[in-house]
Specification:
The complex is a heterodimer of chains A (282) and B (306). Chain A has helices spanning 2-20, 23-54, 58-86, 93-98, 100-105, 111-145, 152-176, 179-206, 209-221, 224-234, 238-243, 257-279. Chain A is mainly α and 282 residues long. Chain B is of the alpha/beta class and 306 residues long. Chain B has two domains: 6-221, Rossmann fold (3-Layer(aba) Sandwich), CATH 3.40.50; 226-288, Alpha-Beta Plaits (2-Layer Sandwich), CATH 3.30.70. Chain B is 36% helix and 29% strand. Chain B has eleven helices and 14 strands. In chain B, strands 6-7-8-3-9-10 form a six-stranded mixed sheet, sandwiched between helices. In chain B, helix 3 crosses helix 4 (108-121). The chains are: A mainly alpha (282), B alpha/beta (306). At the A-B interface, helix 1 and helix 5 of A face helix 2 and helix 3 of B.
Chain lengths: 282, 306
């Protein structure tokens, strides 16, 4: 009970900090600008598609606009990744470097509770941001074309898991490394998964097993891109993914076990960060 | 006898190949103001951080308030003002204290009461609604002190608590430390401002290169605290022998007779005795042996090679 309260006090402080330091505001303004741009684009694209095929070919209309919706969600995915890495990256390392953490850690609160409180707050921020932005994209699609991608209820949680995974890595690296090293490490891992994902797709399409294996290994080292691909796979009509009609129709769909792997990965990364912070001289 | 408030045996901390603290052996009694003295880099801050559970010792044993180092329940009874007093500077003074009160598990009513009292005590009532970012160094140190005392701790660690303060601020801190002593709170004071320490501490330990090299009870040492210098007219050995009854280490050199006496009251007795003997007194000086003399003595000896 006492632990829960301590974690909540820390989470509250962390959210308060994000609000007070106006980082959240900056992120939200950037997000709003994106949605305005996307909405405008969607409006013109929809009009053009409707003029060309809409009246006669309902399937073609749907496929094209679903592709455009996925492109919007892909951008949201990327923005969420940035937010999930950059917002929490200095929350521990920065406070350790400045000495702010000393008065905190000398209080009757466990170090685990400090980390979990911060983690909880940033996972919340990441998920909230994703819901807001993805909700915006979906609302634009719904209002302007009457379309909603299929299985959003599966896709969005997968994207949320990706955000949570990056928050976890960002905080856990910050518990052990300096801010700049943490940022480089997490983006490095993300980049590796990103490139690995494409290598795997190309390898699958060209039938090159070596390239495919490289991709698989990359997604085991860092499962973030696989989570997006899985989410994208669910959020498009079967015909699109079967015919590989868009860059978001993965040639090799990550297996559902990848979700378990990613969840386990998150837990281990968090434990690694907790342990590092526990032992660290402050 | 009551259990010591802090007790350490051979506490040690290495950072890689560097030994920050080699052998910390201390015992603090309840209600005393304990000064921890040493030059920069002697391991004072690391020692204090070990006692607070911020840094884990590499070796040695210690108990704080009867519990092992880092014990969570015990930390609710410790107060700490860190050396560099860096805080969440986007909080206002009042929010900062409130947050730390919540971390200590204080309920709302008690927080409000204590925060008001402490803001008053450290003279920051007007600054309380302002963000810490706008505070001067001295104000930050005072709000940090309020933070350390908020939850009415039994043991307070102050790491260079007056480094950012002007003379009035220093007097304030000195008064607060005295108040704490009358309340029975034990104070562990890290400092290299010897005047501060001399004015507030009951007992001091000198630390050099990560070792406690000497302990001094200031009240006790007062009995050899005076160094007397006399410039006398013609006198013989019998006068020197006679002076020995008033103090010790009587020696005559370079036209001066020097000796150590125990109490202030001995001075007029010496004067009266010399005049009765018809010895001319040209000059008479009495100097208290300062903590600085002790410090230089102890640190100097230790620095000799071999």
């Amino acid at each position: 009970m006492r632990s829960v309260r301590a974690i909540l006090v820390m989470a509250h402080l962390t959210l308060h900090e994000a609000l007070r330091r106006r980082v959240l505001l900056a992120v939200l303004i950037g997000g709003a600008a994106f949605l305005v741009l996307y909405g405008t684009g969607f409006h013109f694209v929809e009009r053009e598609v409707h003029r060309q095929v809409g009246a006669i070919n309902r399937v073609q209309y749907r496929i094209t606009l679903n592709f455009f919706l996925l492109a919007g969600l892909y951008a949201v995915n990327f923005l969420t990744v940035m937010t999930s890495v950059l917002l929490p990256v200095d929350t521990l390392s920065g406070e350790i470097a400045s000495g702010v953490i000393q008065t905190l850690a000398a209080k009757p609160i466990r170090r685990v509770e400090i980390v979990l409180g911060k983690w909880l707050a940033y996972v919340g921020v990441s998920a909230g941001y994703l819901l807001l932005m993805a909700g915006g994209v979906l609302a634009i699609g719904r209002v302007l074309s009457g379309l909603t991608p299929p299985d959003v209820a599966i896709g969005l949680p997968l994207m949320m898991l990706e955000g949570a995974l990056l928050v976890t890595l960002s905080i856990s690296c910050g518990a052990r490394l300096t801010t700049i090293t943490s940022g480089i490490t997490v983006f490095g891992l993300f980049g590796l998964a990103f490139v690995g994902g494409w290598v795997e797709q190309i390898g699958t399409m060209t039938g090159n097993d070596a390239a495919r294996n490289v991709g698989t290994v990359a997604s085991l080292i860092m499962p973030s891109e696989s989570l997006w691909q899985l989410a994208a796979h669910h959020m498009q009509p079967a015909i699109m993914s079967e015919l590989h009609l868009s860059p978001f129709s993965p040639a090799s769909v990550p297996s559902p076990e990848m979700v378990v792997w990613a969840a386990g990965y998150l837990v281990v990364a968090l434990a690694w960060g907790l342990r590092g912070f526990q032992k660290r001289a402050l | 006898m009551a259990e010591p408030v802090v007790e350490t045996h051979g506490l040690r901390r290495d950072f890689g190949a560097k030994v920050a603290v080699e052998d910390l052996s201390l015992s603090l009694r309840q209600g005393e103001v304990f000064g921890f003295l040493g030059p920069n880099g002697a391991g004072k801050t690391t020692s204090l951080k070990m006692l607070l559970g911020l840094v884990e010792p590499t070796a040695g044993r210690a108990r704080v308030l009867g519990a092992p180092l880092g014990d969570r329940a015990t930390r609710a009874r410790l107060g700490f003002l860190p050396e560099h007093f860096r805080f969440h500077d986007w909080l206002t003074g009042r929010e900062f204290l409130d947050f730390h009160g919540r971390l200590c598990g204080m309920d709302r009513a008690r927080r409000a009461r204590r925060i008001d009292a402490l803001l008053e005590r450290v003279d920051l009532v007007d600054a309380a609604p302002r963000r810490l970012r706008e505070y001067s160094k001295g104000m930050l140190q005072r709000i940090g002190l309020a933070q350390a005392l908020l939850h009415e701790p039994a043991l307070v660690f102050l790491d260079e608590p007056t480094s950012g303060l002007d003379p009035l601020g220093r007097l304030l801190v000195r008064d607060i430390i005295r108040e704490l002593r009358t309340q029975g709170v034990t104070v562990f004071l890290n400092s290299h401002l010897l005047g501060e320490v001399e004015a507030t501490c009951d007992r001091v330990a000198f630390v050099k290169a990560g070792r406690t090299v000497h302990e001094l009870t200031l009240a006790d040492e007062a009995h050899i605290a005076f160094q007397v210098g006399l410039r006398l007219g013609s006198h013989d050995g019998a006068v020197l022998e006679g002076l020995a009854r008033f103090g010790r280490d009587v020696e005559a050199r370079d036209g001066w007779v020097r000796m150590k006496i125990e109490r202030d009251e001995t001075l007029p007795e010496i004067a009266r005795w010399l005049i009765e003997r018809r010895v001319d007194v040209h000059e008479m000086r009495a100097e208290r042996r300062s903590l600085e003399d002790w410090f230089l003595d102890i640190m100097g000896q230790d620095q000799r090679p071999g």
